[in-house]
Amino acid sequence: MWETTKRDFVVSWTRTIAFSCAENEYSFMRETDSLSENGSGDRKEEIMRATYRVFRTEGYAGLSISKIADEVGVSKSALYNHYSGKDELLVAFLEYVMDKYSDEIQHSDTENPIVYLKLFKKTLLSEESIENNGNSDVPIDLFETIMQLKVQAVHNEVFREHFTRDDQFEHERLADRVRSGIEEGYFQDVDPDATAEFVQTVVEGAILRQTTTDSTSLQNIRRELDEYLRCRLIADPEKFNLRD
Amino acid sequence: MWETTKRDFVVSWTRTIAFSCAENEYSFMRETDSLSENGSGDRKEEIMRATYRVFRTEGYAGLSISKIADEVGVSKSALYNHYSGKDELLVAFLEYVMDKYSDEIQHSDTENPIVYLKLFKKTLLSEESIENNGNSDVPIDLFETIMQLKVQAVHNEVFREHFTRDDQFEHERLADRVRSGIEEGYFQDVDPDATAEFVQTVVEGAILRQTTTDSTSLQNIRRELDEYLRCRLIADPEKFNLRD
Q1: Which of A45, A167, B50, B129 could form a disulfide with B71 if both were Cys (CB 3.0 to 4.6 A apart)?
Q2: What is the pLDDT of residues B204-235, one digit of tens each?
Q3: Among candidates A104, A221, A201, which has minimal Cα distance to B212?
Q4: Which of A12, A156, A28 minimizes the C-alpha distance to A88?
Q5: Of 1.10.357.10, 2.60.450.10, 1.25.40.20, 1.10.630.10, which CATH number belongs to B2-232?
Q6: Helices (DSSP H) in chain B: which residue ranges?
Q7: What pLDDT does residue B15 have?
Q8: Predicted confidence (pLDDT) per residue in A160-199, tens digit
Q9: Domain boundaries, chain B
Q10: Window 79-138 of B, Cβ < 8 Å to A
Q11: Res B12: pLDDT
Q12: How many CB atoms lie within 10 A of CB B137?
């Protein structure tokens, strides 16, 4: 049940990749490493994997359509037929990674919104998901990549549109769950949008802290988020223990 | 009282600049613009202001010791005498901005830890502080600059050390206030470190959302943070209204 639910658990953007599907992520990146050797996969896959490899080596500033073309072994103009520039290519990469996991991740079969919230929390704020999946530090690499691209949205409209869309998608999913939880009597009569946004904010803040400082305690953040949810959201705190 | 407390309010790193001292920030940046024209200020100030100008134009990738030297009108080697590279120069810039406001910002004279928390929240999570200080969008520019530098900490040890140190400094300040609030009976018997880290996480998440998407509602985040504080921290919710 846990495994199925975990897989079916719907999350959006980058966190999908960075946290919830750590194992898949790892295999994605292993494939990434070996793709150019065995030549398998279609052209789009190949371009996306080359994009990831080049970004990891060169960073945002050093990445160019030209370098990706060299890496894939196609002409620059062939790439320009599909992507008008490196920003469009990188947003396509972000969407590709999201789609890849959306294929595997169906709508959640978790009817109980409290169980859903537990999974949300466990999935997004777990050290195990980030670091201890037994597969080296590869997932945190992809996660860092996404954070570096996210900050491009500060001053770049192409990325800003992407991350706004992604953020709203996740927001709707989460707010809908809160809404149905209220209707079904699991939750108190809160503002679903405010509650969803607050949970998103905590998750984003935790990710930012985790990737940019050495002093973050996800355990503390998780525990205090529990307290917020218990106090603000859960209709009957005695009946449901979010720490499970 | 409010003005004095606001000025004396102790916060750390970049949020000091980005939020709490918007007016000073603005004058800092006005000076920045005019410095090269009137030639006033000492050399260090001049280098820091040149750093800010070049960063705003060129970004992290385009900034170099050489460009800063040109901007200031000194030799490259003169700059290398003080900074071993551009990362050290940029960290010096971050520390300079923090010091600049630390001079003005004394230890808080707010004895009541609930008033302190109100100020903390009002200062860090206020649209007014960010956008509506009547002085154009300049403060958000500096704020964006800092977020762009912060994400360098993802993979750059020099920035990571700086932001970890900064984060810990702010954490200690905040946790101490929670600790004394517990001793004085204002707060419940919580874990001061966990509470402080959670508040920091919410603030960081709000900043990240605010700078990278168009869908953030600081009002929602502020309201839910109130609910968390009311429920988790305040000993007598009837007596103290955090929304003031």
Answers
A1: B50
A2: 898 888 888 988 888 899 999 989 998 999 99
A3: A201
A4: A156
A5: 1.10.357.10
A6: 2-8, 13-15, 22-38, 43-62, 65-72, 76-80, 86-104, 113-124, 127-130, 138-150, 157-183, 192-212, 218-232
A7: 37
A8: 999 999 889 889 988 998 999 999 998 999 999 999 999 9
A9: 2-232
A10: none
A11: 33
A12: 11
> Strand pairing partners for B187?
B234
Residue A96 contacts residue A46 (beta carbons within 8 Å): no
Residues of chain B numbered 50-79 and touching chain A (CB < 8 Å): 59-62
CB B53 within 8 A of CB B32: yes
Tell me whether residues A160 and B212 touch, CB distance under 8 A.
yes
Could A221 and B198 be called an inter-chain contact, meaning their C-beta atoms sit closer than 8 Å?
Answer: yes
CA B23 to mean position of chain CA atoms:
14
- CA dihedral sign of residues A176, A177, A181, A184: positive
Report which of A160, A70, A231 is spatially closest to residue B227, judged by C-alpha positions: A231
Q: Name the average pLDDT for chain B.
A: 74
Q: For residue B15, what are its two tokens?
A: 């949020």
Structure tokens at A42: 């279609």
Residue among B60, B61, B154 minimizing CB distance to A211: B154
Residues 6+ apart with CB under 8 A from B70: none
Q: Which residue has the higher pLDDT, A165 or B134?
A: A165
Length of chain A measured in residues: 244
Out of A163, A193, A231, the one facing B232 most closely (by C-beta) is A231
Each residue's pLDDT tens digit, B21-70: 333 333 344 444 433 334 445 888 899 989 988 988 888 888 999 999 99
